[in-house]
UniProtKB/TrEMBL annotation:
This protein's pathway: Carbohydrate degradation; glycolysis; pyruvate from D-glyceraldehyde 3-phosphate: step 5/5
Keywords carried by this UniProt record: ATP-binding, Glycolysis, Kinase, Magnesium, Metal-binding, Nucleotide-binding, Pyruvate, Transferase
Stated family: Belongs to the pyruvate kinase family.
Protein known as: pyruvate kinase
DNA-binding recorded as keyword: no
EC number in record: 2.7.1.40
Pyruvate kinase barrel domain residues: 28-212, 268-424
Substrates-to-products reaction catalysed: pyruvate + ATP = phosphoenolpyruvate + ADP + H(+)
PANTHER family the record matches: PYRUVATE KINASE
Length: 591
């Protein structure tokens, strides 16, 4: 491979590898942590936030609304005490097949024995019979098909999941041969039929029921603005975005149902609390995204809710391009994809999918990177390299662009893992090291080439801001935006310096009340690589009109200085709109 094809900064002096990692602001790559039994206390959540978690994920495939509500209450308290804003992602159940174990007794399965999968949920789960929640499995599979069952699915090393091979179909039952010995524990186990089309809705009944119960539990009050220059920040750069606080410092994301009562609940409580994201599990077609968005579009402010399509099987892979056009972001569920695809094909899909997300300017989130840290304090060598490869960008001889993801999603590692805080910290450190050797110059050229000419007005401004920042070696890019789109386009070009997205609130009315926009846009930056959102106080203009009126720009610069990101004599690139014109300017700071 010719050296010019590598998107890796060269040369790397071997001596520098032995130098201690320097403490600096958070990694540009964001970290999504799943909260659960091992990570739901206020103390642990606070530590996770300080370690670098910017998005908290709630998996509703297990647990009830009351349990998750308690965790959310703890998250609210942790956000307030740590002064670190954290978005919340709710992961829907989707078209997930499950084994029902009502007795919750451990089930031991031995290799070469046979087990029957039955839709009769009245039967008790045992080593001979496993009741499932889907009556159509017998019609969907055939002899020789592969099925995986487990609490967290088969990884190749876990003994908590089992690999089954279909032997025969008997009426509605499926008789399988057990391929590996395992012990299943708990009340529910995920069942995945490899490369089999399952006729189940993307938004399941559990999603609908959970959403309804979740909404009713406890309403939160709406967001309130605080004075941008009266709030005290911590030393880390990531705290620059903590400018607007909810009265309960909490935002959430819901699975949406077509049930009229649910729509009524969401249209009141949901709209009031500014729902941010929807993680749509088992997205298989663009229509899945369109249907979810249709529900949201009827609910006022929820039309701004971002939908992340979770690609988990071959069906979603096949329709990836059309799904990407409809979705606001993509989550690559490598656990399930690793079952549906041959192992040697997983990396090809990951690299191709993330590259397409990068070129579209939409966030890409990669899962299952440090599974071993569920039980161990350190990742394996392969896992550490895997994290770095998810962040770095290269081009191979087969002309596939390997582009960096926006965020790393941690599942079992923080949900039930023994070391949730250490896992987040370790992944953040690996991401930060990988970002240091990222060859932005080549990435920038390839992105510009892909976009082509003529560029749109906004894309031209965004790419020019990044080019200027690189040429003058700016310490930070400050982007004034109302919708957040300009800042996301700047982040699309992967500048090596942080992008401070200053969201300027706008006053709006629904003929019943007046309110400010901006909170949505600021929070939704928490999953975009390199973006650090700041919601401006609406009482301050983008530029000072007189000597006594402190501008938002000055406040942003002051906080940059306080965090250590901006120093005296540094250069800062500012991208903003002045009247009808978009302006990119360079500021050199004085003492």
């Amino acid at each position: 491979m010719h050296s010019s094809q590598l998107l890796l900064e060269e040369p790397i002096r071997m001596a520098t590898i032995l130098e201690p990692s320097k403490a600096s602001f958070s990694a540009m790559t964001k970290i999504v942590g799943t909260l659960g039994p091992r990570s739901r206390s206020v103390e642990v959540i606070s530590a996770c936030l300080k370690a670098g978690m910017t998005v908290a994920r709630f998996d509703v495939s297990w647990g009830d609304a009351e349990y998750h509500q308690g965790t959310l209450d703890n998250l609210k308290t942790a956000i307030k005490s740590s002064k670190k804003l954290c978005a919340v992602m709710l992961d829907t159940v989707g078209a997930e097949l499950q084994v029902v174990n009502k007795s919750e007794k451990a089930i031991t399965l031995k290799a070469d024995d046979k087990v029957i999968l039955t839709p009769d949920q009245g039967q008790e789960a045992s080593s001979e019979v496993l009741p499932i929640n889907f009556a159509g499995l017998a019609k969907a599979v055939k002899q020789g098909d592969t099925i995986f069952v487990g609490q967290y699915l088969f990884t190749g090393s876990e003994t908590t999941s089992v690999w089954l091979e279909v032997d025969e179909v008997q009426g509605g039952d499926v008789v399988c041969v057990i391929k590996n010995s395992a012990t299943l524990a708990g009340s529910l186990f995920t069942l995945h039929a490899s490369q089999i089309q399952i006729d189940l809705p993307t938004l399941s009944e559990k999603d609908k029921q959970f959403s309804l119960a979740y909404c009713i539990v406890k309403p939160y009050r709406s967001c309130a603005y605080i004075d941008i220059h009266e709030h005290k920040y911590c030393s880390k750069f990531c705290n620059l975005f903590l400018v607007v606080l909810s009265l309960n410092l909490f935002v959430t994301l819901f699975a949406i149902s077509s049930v009229s009562l649910l729509l009524q609940v969401i249209s009141t409580w949901g709209v009031q609390n500014k729902i941010d994201f929807l993680s749509l599990s088992y997205t298989r077609h663009a229509q899945d995204v369109r249907e979810a968005r249709e529900y949201l579009s009827k609910l006022g402010d929820l039309s701004q809710t971002q939908i992340f399509a979770k690609i988990e099987n071959v069906e979603g892979l096949t329709h990836f391009d059309e799904i990407l056009q409809e979705a606001d972001g993509i989550i690559l569920s490598r656990g399930n994809l690793g079952i549906d695809l041959p192992p040697e094909k997983v990396f090809l899909f990951q690299k191709s999918a993330v590259y397409k997300c990068n070129m579209a300017g939409k966030p890409a989130v990669v899962t299952r990177v440090v599974d071993s840290m569920t039980d161990n304090l350190r990742p394996t060598r392969a896992e550490a390299t895997d994290v770095a490869n998810a962040v770095l960008d290269a081009k191979s001889d087969i002309n596939i662009y390997i582009s960096g993801c926006d965020a790393i999603l941690l599942g079992a590692e923080t949900l039930r893992g023994l070391y949730p805080v250490e896992t987040i910290s370790t992944v953040g450190k690996i991401c930060a090291e990988a970002e240091k050797v990222f060859n932005q110059d080549q990435y920038f050229k390839r992105t510009v080439k892909f976009v082509g000419e003529p560029m749109s007005h906004l894309e031209s401004i965004a790419s020019s801001a990044v080019r200027a920042a690189l040429k003058v070696k700016a310490s930070v890019i400050i982007c004034f935006t109302s919708s957040g789109r300009a800042a996301r386009l700047i982040a699309k070009y992967r500048p090596t310096m942080p992008v401070l997205s200053v969201v300027i609130p706008r006053l709006k009315t629904n003929q019943l009340k007046w309110s400010f926009t901006g909170a949505f846009e600021a929070r939704q930056s928490l999953i975009v690589r390199g973006l650090f959102p700041l919601l401006a106080d609406p009482r301050h203009p983008a530029e000072s009109t007189n000597a006594t009126n402190e501008s938002v720009l000055k406040v942003a610069l002051d906080h940059g200085k306080a965090s250590g990101v901006i120093k005296s004599h540094d250069r800062v690139v500012v991208c903003q709109k002045v009247g009808d014109a978009s302006v990119v300017k360079i500021i050199e700071l004085e003492d």
